[in-house]
């Protein structure tokens, strides 16, 4: 809208663009205030901290499907969604890092489902895993491919890792067992694993598959992960405490650091999987 002013107007005082008002001060007229139009719209701080969405790609045989951001607790959820299909398994994984601990896992391996429940509950991630595989042979392929898909989903959900805390460290007790987990979302896959599980199986689950699960997850997510057993004699307690400690450490590492203001937590200025 144009504003017509009387010819008697002697002076016009126009403030800088940092002040959103113009004050007109003629001698015999009341002051008139004219708002400037909004020329630019900048993103909010939280939006600037959101990682970029990954586009559909192939990661170690897993199809990474981009998901639209959803509102979760007043901010966009960081979601990774992966489908991995081989001649041995068919795995679908969806993870929301900004969830509330909702879990729905069905892998055909009851003990693994129980451990994925720990990941969701103690990490406050929403974890949905559906898997079918050649468990009539053994649990090896399904255990491995579920972990590969979860790692790929984490990689997608984290995006460029801007604003996150990056490091996580937690010790979880479970009765006589005490497990320490320390991790770095560095982009460099590495696993140091030091568990002494006294039995070969928990239920039908081969306890050797615990190390293989974390190695597979590390390989696709680009994570440095250290797992140490400080105490423990019961196999179930040792493994469950490991997943609980991992969930808590991962929660710490993926949470936003408000002081970082959306920057990448690295002196190099970039965190990417090696």
From TrEMBL:
Pathway: Amino-acid biosynthesis; L-histidine biosynthesis; L-histidine from 5-phospho-alpha-D-ribose 1-diphosphate: step 6/9. Keywords: Amino-acid biosynthesis, Histidine biosynthesis, Lyase. Residues 55-70 have a biased composition (Polar residues). Belongs to the imidazoleglycerol-phosphate dehydratase family. PROSITE patterns: IGP_DEHYDRATASE_1, IGP_DEHYDRATASE_2. It comes from Manihot esculenta. PANTHER family: IMIDAZOLEGLYCEROL-PHOSPHATE DEHYDRATASE, IMIDAZOLEGLYCEROL-PHOSPHATE DEHYDRATASE HIS7. Its main location: plastid. This is Imidazoleglycerol-phosphate dehydratase. NCBIfam families: PRK00951.1-3, PRK00951.2-1, PRK00951.2-4. Residues 49-77 are annotated as: Disordered. The lineage of its organism: Eukaryota, Viridiplantae, Streptophyta, Embryophyta, Tracheophyta. InterPro entries: IGPD_sf (IPR038494), ImidazoleglycerolP_deHydtase (IPR000807), ImidazoleglycerP_deHydtase_CS (IPR020565), Ribosomal_Su5_D2-typ_SF (IPR020568). Its EC number is 4.2.1.19. Gene3D superfamilies: Imidazole glycerol phosphate dehydratase, domain 1. It catalyses: D-erythro-1-(imidazol-4-yl)glycerol 3-phosphate = 3-(imidazol-4-yl)-2-oxopropyl phosphate + H2O.
């Amino acid at each position: 809208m144009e504003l017509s002013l009387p010819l008697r107007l002697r002076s016009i005082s126009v403030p800088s663009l940092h002040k959103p008002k113009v004050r007109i001060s003629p001698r015999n007229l009341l002051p008139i205030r004219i708002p400037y139009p909004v020329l630019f719209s900048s993103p909010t701080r939280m939006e600037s901290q959101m990682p970029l969405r990954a586009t559909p790609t192939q990661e170690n045989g897993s199809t990474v499907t981009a998901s639209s951001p959803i509102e979760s607790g007043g901010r966009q959820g960081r979601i990774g969604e992966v489908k991995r299909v081989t001649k041995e398994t068919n795995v679908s994984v969806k993870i929301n890092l900004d969830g509330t601990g909702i879990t729905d896992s069905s892998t055909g391996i009851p003990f693994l489902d129980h451990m994925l429940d720990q990941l969701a509950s103690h990490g406050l991630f929403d974890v949905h895993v559906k898997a079918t595989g050649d468990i009539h042979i053994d649990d090896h392929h399904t255990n491995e491919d579920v972990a590969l898909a979860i790692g790929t989903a984490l990689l997608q959900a984290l995006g460029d890792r801007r604003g996150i805390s990056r490091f996580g460290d937690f010790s979880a007790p479970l009765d006589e067992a005490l497990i320490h987990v320390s991790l770095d979302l560095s982009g460099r896959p590495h696993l140091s694993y030091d568990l002494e599980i006294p039995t070969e199986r928990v239920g039908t689950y081969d306890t050797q598959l615990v190390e293989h699960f974390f190695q597979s997850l590390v390989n696709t997510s680009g994570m440095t992960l250290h797992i140490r057993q400080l105490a423990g004699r019961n196999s179930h307690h040792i493994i469950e405490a490991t997943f609980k400690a991992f969930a808590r450490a991962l929660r710490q590492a993926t949470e936003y650091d408000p002081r970082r203001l959306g920057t990448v937590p690295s002196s190099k200025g970039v965190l990417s999987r090696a």
